[in-house]
Amino acid sequence: MNVMMNETTRTARSGLAEELRISVARLSRRLRAQVGSDLSVTQFSALAVLERHGEMTPSELAEHEHVKPPSMTRTVAALEAARLVARRPHATDRRQVVLAVTEPGRALLGEHRRRKEAWLAMRLAELTEEERAALERAVPILERLSRS
């Protein structure tokens, strides 16, 4: 009986994992569609990390984003070409540079966030009070999952 319950639990968990993965991916695509940006997901993520955490070296940014330095080099080059990030001399190591978000980069991130949140607020308004309450309770859980 215990073996059967474990198999049922495992199947239920994998079903939840699949449903959650599909739903989160679909919601993420819908949110990205609201901004119609020329930035890739990787570029947008790197820009947002720099805004949130402050100046970083390209290596630190690559490590934070879990990508290899050559990939981050291409990402940073595209962001620099769009004038969304700028290189500055490192404060203590002249061999290195740090990356910082420019004012146009901050403005772009702010506009993207406003559009996404406006779309999401309209969708949330269409839900019942109970559905919104369930989502409110789920937010800390989803946040914990996203950080693991």
From TrEMBL:
SMART domains: HTH_MARR. It comes from the Bacteria. Residues 13-147 form the HTH marR-type domain. InterPro entries: HTH-type_Bedaq_tolerance (IPR052526), HTH_MarR-typ (IPR000835), WH-like_DNA-bd_sf (IPR036388), WH_DNA-bd_sf (IPR036390). SUPFAM superfamilies: Winged helix' DNA-binding domain (SSF46785). PANTHER family: CONSERVED PROTEIN, HTH-TYPE TRANSCRIPTIONAL REGULATOR RV0880. This is MarR family transcriptional regulator.
